[in-house]
Structure to design on (344 residues):
């Protein structure tokens, strides 16, 4: 069942088209991540869904009800949508309990009981209810912001880069905790982020945005393993793109003859491999021969640039495990597992 439907959404700010024809379906109870570089329109889209801004064209339908159509819209406070911003936006002069209960139309005792219940739900000690936001860590503040949004029992939760201000370890732990809370509550979620790994780990559906449009929408595995073009491929992670001539389900490439995922196509094309498909060993055994042109030791991994031989030299960069001692000028063999993805 579709809970949120966006049809041909457009929004301009002067001469700039922030959104240029957005279509998206979000299933009830699902998690969708909108990922893209800064300035591509992600936050604008979230603001339209929340009701903070109005689209110039297009429709927003939520729970079967028309929320906006370019000429009129339902106000934000009547949409039943929760939102957690990047910095939490907690009221600094209120306690945690008062922040969570803010906006609830209930007696003080009911608000306090609800705040205590939600603190347990988001994994925080109820003893923190009397604290103020500046007495909490960044991760704790984000969980309180989530509890405040959950207090009004929204059917849809909007997360606007809520983990970006946290350090790496805390970011992963907070994201996992938030995901578990939202899943347990059965709340449909729309996450906006510029972090590709976060989008892939969080969502059931990923929408890759570029210049106000969706370049690709699909499951995390689909958009990662079968991106629509090299730009999308590079944005979603490290990608090795090679020229090739394709026929009979195989590609003749600088890495030799490789199986491809498009058995019908014939002719020249570009193909893509992900780093996890590549193995690099000292020059022995099977594989394509290459030479280490550069290497930078980074601890567990090393950043290397490998040059392939032949009439026209081809090189690519790759992170490889540092377990093998390799040096510039070393001859190596490059092995490939799985199939290469074809860009038509």
């Amino acid at each position: 069942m579709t809970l949120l439907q966006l049809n041909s959404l457009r929004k301009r700010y002067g001469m700039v088209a922030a959104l240029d024809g957005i279509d998206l379906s979000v299933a009830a109870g699902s998690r969708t991540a909108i990922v893209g570089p800064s300035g591509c329109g992600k936050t604008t889209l979230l603001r339209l869904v929340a009701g903070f801004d109005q689209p110039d064209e297009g429709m927003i339908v939520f729970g079967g009800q028309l929320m906006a159509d370019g000429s009129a819209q339902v106000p934000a406070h009547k949409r039943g949508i929760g939102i957690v911003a990047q910095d939490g936006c907690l009221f600094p002069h209120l306690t945690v309990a008062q922040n969570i209960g803010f906006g609830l139309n209930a007696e003080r005792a009911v608000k306090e009981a609800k705040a205590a219940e939600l603190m347990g739900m988001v994994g925080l000690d109820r003893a923190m209810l009397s604290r103020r936001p500046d007495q909490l860590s960044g991760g704790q503040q984000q969980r309180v912001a989530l509890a405040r949004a959950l207090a009004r029992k929204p059917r849809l939760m909007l997360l606007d880069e809520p983990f970006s201000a946290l350090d790496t370890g805390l970011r992963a732990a907070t994201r996992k905790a938030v995901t578990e809370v939202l899943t347990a509550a059965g709340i449909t979620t729309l996450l906006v982020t510029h972090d590709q790994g976060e989008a892939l780990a969080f969502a059931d559906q990923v929408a890759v945005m570029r210049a106000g449009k969706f370049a690709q929408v699909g499951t995390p595995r689909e958009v990662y393993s079968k991106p629509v073009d090299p730009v999308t491929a590079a944005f979603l992670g490290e990608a090795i793109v090679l020229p090739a001539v394709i026929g009979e389900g195989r590609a003749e490439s600088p890495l030799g003859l490789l199986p491809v995922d498009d058995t019908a196509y014939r002719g020249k094309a570009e193909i893509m491999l992900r780093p996890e498909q590549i193995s690099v060993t000292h020059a022995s055994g099977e594989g394509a021969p290459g030479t280490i042109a550069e290497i930078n030791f980074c601890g567990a991994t090393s950043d290397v640039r490998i040059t392939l031989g032949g009439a026209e030299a081809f090189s690519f960069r790759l992170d490889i495990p540092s377990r093998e001692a390799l040096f510039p000028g070393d001859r190596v063999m490059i092995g490939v597992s799985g199939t290469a993805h074809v860009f038509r």
